[in-house]
């Protein structure tokens, strides 16, 4: 029987940056190091780690917008950074992103309807009426009203505008959405609503997510699997989120302790694991 091809496959992906200076003589930062992972269709992989661990760099590499120094990124079997560029445009429409800051993700002078229609105009040739209908359907799908199409970004709350950004991201029915801290700037109640919306949309539209966050609770809500990053490397993986309490790496324990501070068993683990990590971080 032929093996099922993963939707996304990363093989030994590394990327470094120069720390700065006019002649780029600054310290070399290894943002991602030999990352290998795969994602099946309709699956959600949570990518967690502390600030600067390389999550967003990896997200940009997956989106095809940050060329790695080494390694391959295969999306639906197409190498996003390969020599053969012929299939790239087609696979790009299946790869979308939702960022943390919805207000800077949209043009303040464009209505919500125009923002949502942007990918449709780039990739799908719809008549004026079909575009209006599609935008209206998308707004309803994300829990907004058809009339909201005429509003400008400043007329929405943060949660409502993130729904607009989600509507834009799903407008072409992509196969994969990278959610880069997509709920981090929202208050807890709105976060829960957006996570439920993302979960429902995944079910309804059969999409996959890479969910980048430093918030393990949010990630656990949505993800099937987990990868923990530290200094550009994946240091721990979980194939079943039910095993979340079996995490052992100090970074994982620090993230776990941040969401479960009240439970004594994790406080103890924090003292032996994450606590040590925090102490090491303070002294380094
Ligand atoms: N364009 C760039 N130029 C130089 N250094 C960069 C660039 N982008 C990222 N870095 C560095 O690469 C490392 C990883 O950054 P990255 O933004 O991927 O981490 P992160 O885990 O997403 O962090 P955060 O959660 O704070 O967004 C950091 O040390 C960062 O300073």
TrEMBL record:
The UniProt keyword set, sorted, is: ATP-binding, Nucleotide-binding, Transport
Which example biological process does GO assign this protein? transmembrane transport
Domain of life of the organism in this record? Bacteria
User: What InterPro entries does this protein map onto?
Assistant: AAA+_ATPase (IPR003593), ABC_transp_ATP-bind (IPR050319), ABC_transporter-like_ATP-bd (IPR003439), ABC_transporter-like_CS (IPR017871), P-loop_NTPase (IPR027417)
Q: Which species does this protein come from?
A: Sporomusa malonica
Point out the signal peptide segment.
none
Q: Which GO terms describe its molecular function?
A: ATP binding; ATP hydrolysis activity
Protein name per Swiss-Prot or TrEMBL: Nickel transport system ATP-binding protein
Every ABC transporter domain range:
8-256
């Amino acid at each position: 029987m032929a093996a099922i091809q993963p939707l996304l496959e990363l093989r030994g992906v590394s990327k470094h940056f120069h720390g700065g200076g006019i002649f780029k003589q600054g310290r070399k930062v290894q943002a991602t190091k030999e990352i290998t992972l795969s994602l099946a269709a309709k699956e959600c992989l949570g990518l967690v780690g502390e600030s600067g661990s390389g999550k967003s760099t990896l997200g940009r590499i997956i989106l095809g917008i940050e060329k790695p120094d080494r390694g391959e990124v295969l999306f639906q079997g197409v190498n996003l950074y390969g020599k053969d560029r012929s299939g790239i445009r087609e696979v790009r429409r299946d790869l979308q992103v939702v960022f943390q800051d919805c207000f800077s993700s949209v043009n303040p002078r464009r209505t919500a309807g125009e923002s949502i229609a942007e990918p449709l105009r780039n990739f799908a040739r719809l008549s004026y009426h079909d575009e209006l209908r599609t935008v209206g359907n998308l707004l309803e799908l994300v829990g907004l009203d058809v009339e909201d199409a005429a509003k400008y970004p400043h007329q929405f709350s943060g949660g409502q505008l993130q729904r607009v950004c989600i509507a834009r991201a799903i407008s072409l029915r992509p196969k994969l959405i990278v959610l880069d801290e997509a709920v981090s700037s929202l208050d807890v109640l709105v976060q829960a609503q957006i996570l439920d919306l993302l979960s429902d949309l995944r079910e309804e539209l059969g999409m996959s997510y890479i969910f980048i966050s430093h918030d393990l609770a949010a990630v656990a809500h949505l993800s099937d699997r987990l990868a923990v990053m530290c200094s550009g490397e994946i240091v721990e993986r979980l194939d079943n989120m039910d095993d979340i309490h079996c995490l052992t790496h100090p970074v994982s324990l620090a993230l776990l302790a941040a969401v479960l501070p009240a439970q004594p068993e994790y406080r103890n683990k924090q003292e032996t694991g994450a606590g040590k990590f925090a102490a090491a971080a303070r002294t380094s």
